[in-house]
Design goal:
Blueprint (H helix, E strand, L loop, with lengths): L1 H29 L2 H4 L1 E5 L2 E8 L11 H23 L5 H24 L2 E9 L2 E2 L5 H19 L12
Antiparallel strand pairs: 1-2, 2-3, 3-4
Helix pairs in contact: 1-4, 3-4, 4-5
Length: 166
Amino acid sequence: MLQRKFHMGLAIAFGVFVIDRISKWWIMDIVNLPKTHIVPLLPFLNLRWAENRGISFSLLTAQGDGGRWLLVGVTAGVVVGLAIWLRTVQNRLLAVALGLVIVGALGNIYDRAVMGYVADFVQFYLGNWSFAIFNVADSCITLGAALLIWDAFFGPKSGKKPSEVN
């Protein structure tokens, strides 16, 4: 039963990783957003090119190759820890949540290792206010973290037997 949840989490991670890679390829090579910089879609949504050299929301911007590889290493360590946790989960919600956070981190690790930055391109805005520019991997991290919080407050209680959990 535990193996099935682990494999489900990995399958989600693999599938969404492919979607993340395809979306970034499409944005960079087909739409050519690095050159056009912005494509208005809706009165509240743009495709806007951003090269994120920091962690989430461009915090702690990495300076030079040393900082870049430090971020890759730290993020890879987090992924390993989450994968170990994923091997022990006993409910689907937690497996999905961890799979989403893992895939988001892997998508951003790939960008940072290959390009030196994370390619961000989705911008929601209202008037002069703009939400942080993000990508599919960032969305997965955010959704996965929200599901982890949900599970912490409303998930199965530790007193249940594994057979009683989803």
